[in-house]
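Re: weekly structure request thread

Next one in the queue (619 aa):
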Amino acid sequence: MDKPQPAYRGDEPYVFVCYAHADEKIVYPEIRWLQDQGIRIWYDEGISAGRVWRAEIGEAIEGADKFLFYISSGSLKSDHCNREISVALDEEKEILPVHLDGTPLTPDLKVGLARLQAIHRTQDDDYQRHLVEALGQETRVETGPYDERPPRLRVEKPMIAVLSFENLSGDVDQEFFSEGIAEDILNGLAHSPGVVVRARNSSFSFKGRQVDTKTIAERLNVTHIVNGSVRKSGNRVRVNARLTAVEQDVDVWSDRYDRELIDVFAVQDEITGSILNALDLHFSGTERQRVSLDAYDAYLMGRYHFSRLEIPEAISAFDHAIEIEPDYAEALSSLAGMYALLGGVGAFSGNAHRENILESVRIYRERALAVNPDGWVRVLTSSSYQLQDRMDELNRLIRRYPHNPNLFFSYSSLFRRIGRFDLEVRVLDQQVALDPLYPDSFRMRGDAKLFEGRYQEAMDDFEAFERLGGVLITPWAARLAFHRRDIAGLERLVERDPAAWLLAPYFQTIMAAAVPYLRRDAVGVEQTLSPLETQDGYVSNYVKFWTALLKEQYALALEHYWAALREREFQARHEIRGYHGSRTLFPEYFAQPGYEAMLLEFDLDAESVAKLVIPDLPF
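Done, posted below.
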């Protein structure tokens, strides 16, 4: 079962939720619904049968404004729940008991909770309203990504959100297919210059949640919503779709398509064309490579897994697609993108197979471009340092594929390389406007603001990333704490569970060493870095650069960074003017005799950067 958004961990009033592991199927939808109402919720995201009760839970109860207790036979028998109730009573918290079923309270709890007015989920006809009122206005978000409108796009065009289509096939394993149909319709609409289409990540974030149309339109800042359903049975498919004008609350267009499965591509084009025709816009058709249904199925499965960051499963599905159709350009491009992602992560994860991974990027990229020389994969997986060419090409591709977040991220990273953090933020502002509920939009923009020195705004974006369901923010928050020289904050972050550093385990050691570095404790730095330097296995030049930097071996640090650039390590290319553009931390490093020569080798010296012609941004 999909979990709700991550637990609230800020300083505003919030509600602690106490529940039994066995009740997740009931409680998780409840928590998601409360979060949709803007209520700040803390719940134990890692709860499982037999888990040891953690001090973090006690701290969360102490900091909570209200305590929501879901009563059931399971929660009354749970040692966890009984201990949580005991702490809440000792702390004199305002407790709201909610009966999930007719299970009576135990004698002990009757005494402790006798004075409290309980709510009965199955007996109260107006249960949801009473629950929200009982939790109080003070625990609701007044501002932030859930309540405030996303940044407004200055356009006078219909603005459309295509929601994930409902799977009516009676088989949960077909979820990928209904989702893929909706995504292809979204992509088809996005090619029309007459409409603005919200990106997939934000539009699909409402999947499985009971949110009314007007609320969705408000959060996504759209005028129209497309939704529908897919029923796949044998060799036939039935697709229902409708276009709703939200302000008028009327269906502008709707239709049902009952066809053989082989006609699914034509159905997608017909739906796209009908939607645009209903808006008095012309549809010239979708550029799509025609492939077998089995290959298309596998490709949709790969996209489905990738959207959930299930990378091995995504690679396996894309591999299966090209086994069936060896020249399937989108599947080949997606494989190149998957391996490029793994190659970038390898800089901090100690990936010993990085060379093989990068070779896979090259092979799949070349195969994809042989089929479609004009595809997006040419730029997104390129390791070229030819900034002018990449800048011009990305500018062109963004105009052609205006809702591909990877294009915006790649485009913004070019401005980081040349130290134009203002333009990097501007590109990411547009990405946030187009994809306002996508967590990574905020993480990337927060990172850009960090290097621009806008520390509080960076922290605001990182917190938005977590609130929207983003995971593994710890490395970015630690980097911000390091820039701010916040030793106490940095210590708290590096002491987090290693799972919080999953994508960058080596960086946890580096940031741990940054604590004694900021305290001017050279011995502490040496001791902290020692396990990293003596372990067996692959360690990237970029990691070696950091270890030398913290040990104040600046000439050696420059040598390692230069090697990282020559070997095209992603993190080094991406950050060359990130830390390099923020010179307050390591002035001695930037004063090294070879530093400017390194920039010159890669056309990133001041004179070369000044010669770049920055295209007009297409927004």
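The chain has four domains: 15-139, 159-288, 295-371, 394-611. The longest helix spans residues 329-349.
Next request, please.
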